[in-house]
Specification:
Organism: Brassica carinata (Ethiopian mustard)
Shape: rod-shaped
Distance between the termini: 115 Å
Number of strands: 2
Number of helices: 5
Strand content: 5-15%
Largest sheet: 2 strands, antiparallel
Strand order of the largest sheet: 1-2
Keywords: Coiled coil
Protein name: MATH domain-containing protein
Helix content: 55-70%
Order of helices and strands: EEHHHHH
Amino acid sequence: MWNGDGTVEFNGFRVLYSEVEYVRRIFERHPETASNLGPKNQLVKNAYMNTLLDLIDITCLAPQELTEEELRDAENTLMDLVGVGFELDWLKKKLEELCVKKKKMEARGARMRELDRMIVEQRQVLLELEVELKNEEKEAVSDSARLGFEDVV
């Protein structure tokens, strides 16, 4: 139901018209989402729905776009929403997956930096060996050269 203020009534929530499709998909895929929601006050319910939509937006970000603090805040927000009656096991699972990806990405980044450091060290060793080889080659050429008459006499 259109409210004339850019919002629409949907499943007991007043949401922006631009967000109706998102909210519809949430309830279509997860009908239990707000089945145990405690607050009856429309403003409070709307605030919780906006928080849920913001949390979903955060969960859609790539792991590298989030800090550890932002992930902790997202987990706390999720717990707050669950605390008021939202059924969000589906979102909790996605947020946990995001945290695991973030940790893997950080570990992979550390491993890549370590490998890069090792490559730089090995290149330096290789350069030193090449210099040593050139010196040996010069000495070998010098040692194998024929002596001239003047060198002998």
